[in-house]
Amino acid sequence: MEFEFRPIKVEDVKQIDSWNYDGFVEKVEMAPYFESFKQTGKLQGPGGYEGYAAFHENEVVGLFEFDVNGRIMEIGLALRPDWIGKGIGATYVKQGIAFGMHHYHEDVNEIRLEVDEQNKAAIRVYEKIGFKRKTQKDRNIEMRMVL
């Protein structure tokens, strides 16, 4: 399965904002995109991350966010709710990271992300591809993968 990552557009933000999940995560936080667009005309994710919509067969199926600081790439991501539990999580995360590494042309040697402790499926995917748990604050676990 191949994903195509494109710079996020307003229509993608609206679509992703409509996704509803069962369980502890109800929605992907898209408010920063709307707020930044309203204030500056530019779409920026939480913490100034750059957002990319993930497409499969011209359909938005995911979100990948990047922030590169020196040799560290921080990522945020989401997969459309009806795509969760289909066994494609590791492929999605690997392709998103590969896209980020190629796109930013930086000498990155570490990838970081945060995940809610209750998101057991995502934690399993991240650990499967090489992420390690580093710290935990409240319910958020910081995970890192050294390249």
TrEMBL record:
InterPro entries linked to this entry: Acyl_CoA_acyltransferase, GNAT_dom
SUPFAM superfamilies linked: Acyl-CoA N-acyltransferases (Nat)
Presence of the UniProt keyword Ribonucleoprotein in the record: no
Keywords carried by this UniProt record: Transferase
Domain N-acetyltransferase positions: 3-147
GO molecular function, one term: acyltransferase activity, transferring groups other than amino-acyl groups
Coiled coil stretches, renumbered: none
Name this protein carries in UniProt: Acetyltransferase (GNAT) domain-containing protein
Organism of origin: Halobacillus aidingensis
